[in-house]
């Protein structure tokens, strides 16, 4: 009887710990945000320079540098960085950086879906 009870308790503890870890993974996904900047880049060298620098910034999880539109879209973890820090990282490279207006973001997303 004691063996069955102990086995049951062990299974319950294992099931509880599994569900708790699944919740933390789900909560971690909620911490991601996205920001888009207009950047004064002019050539492919500028594009590569921004990509190489931002890909190593703490908290950056995704990056899209669009040279024709002169936009940089960054997906990042909220707890590790902020839009201000990301903007400063681009400015340190010598580029002018401005937040992309909301209407332009919607058009940019629509263009991505069409391609």
Automatic annotation (TrEMBL):
Gene3D superfamilies attached to this UniProt entry: 3.30.70.100
InterPro entries linked to this entry: HMA_dom (IPR006121), HMA_dom_sf (IPR036163)
Spans through the membrane: none
Record-linked PROSITE patterns: HMA_2 (PS50846)
Annotated HMA domain residues: 32-98
Alphabetical UniProt keywords: Signal
Signal sequence bounds: 1-22
The keyword Signal belongs to this UniProt entry's keyword annotation: yes
SUPFAM superfamilies: HMA, heavy metal-associated domain
Keyword Magnesium: no
Protein's recorded name: Heavy-metal-associated domain-containing protein
């Amino acid at each position: 009887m004691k063996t069955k009870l102990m086995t049951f308790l062990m299974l319950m503890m294992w099931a509880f710990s599994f569900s708790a870890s699944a919740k933390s993974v789900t909560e971690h996904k909620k911490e991601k945000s996205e920001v888009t900047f207009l950047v004064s880049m002019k050539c492919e060298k500028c594009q590569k320079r921004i990509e190489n620098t931002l890909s190593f910034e703490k908290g950056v999880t995704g990056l899209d540098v669009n040279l024709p539109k002169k936009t940089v879209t960054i997906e990042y973890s909220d707890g590790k960085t902020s839009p201000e820090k990301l903007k400063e990282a681009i400015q340190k490279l010598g580029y002018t950086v401005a937040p992309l207006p909301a209407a332009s973001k919607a058009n940019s997303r629509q263009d991505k879906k069409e391609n």
